[in-house]
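Obj: model holo form, ligand = zinc ion.
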Amino acid sequence: MARLTALSADSMEGRGTGTPGAARARRWIVRELEAMGVRPLGASYEHPVAWRRRGSGDSAVAVNLVARIPGREPGGPVLVLSAHVDHLGIRNGEVFNGADDDASGCVALLEVADALRRTPPRHDVLLTFFDAEEAGLQGARGFVAQPPLPLARIALVINADMVARQDGGALWVAGTAHTPVLKPLVEAVARHATIPVRLGHDTPGGKPGDDWTSSSDHGAFHARGVPFLYLGVEDHADYHRPGDDAAKVDPQFFGAVAGVLQELVRAADAALPSLPPHRQPAR
Ligand SMILES: [Zn+2]
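Output (holo structure tokens):
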């Protein structure tokens, strides 16, 4: 909760892409990673990607952060964990703090990083803190378009976006409909969880907004055929509103989600070699 409060504080100015607040948020995350001894992938944590703004077509730069936790058997398949740093910034004088969206995912990743550093995974794990998600998954799209390692090595991405609010009473895990081999793995973790963990929100044909397959950064990976698991909660009254504050978060629920994510990461790490190769998605 201390981390969540820090990353969603007014001083971060809503972490709008390209703003001083976003740069401050990146520096804060980098300091957290350095403090726990997690090194960048490559020479710098910062991986800038160019993109064009919808509508105006203006060129813009998103700055992703990418860290690597070396596995005991490096060089094989890679597990990518992701969350997005950016949020909506300041609008009409109001700071959109985005505690749930998605400071919560970033903090959950930091908690996992701490655990993985103490008990190393079998495979390499990348921690990706994406920028410009709110502008249409731009940081993640740039990452998969010019990946810092061959995309074929990325066996799975686990994306956490909005994981701290329990208004809906459950944590959802989406993605098993696309990669059924992951279903028993997620179900086993769900059985031991101290909060309700539900599988779904990953098939077309339901109500509008019911299918979360492309709702966050995992969508950019899915579009390239990379299997994904997405962790998130139902939209709540403060979704994309200035009231998305750390004070509205239930610490027990958020703590339990962080635990579920860690269990999923351990199980996925063990299962990584048995995951199917990337499917070529329909265009
Ligand atoms: Zn989000």
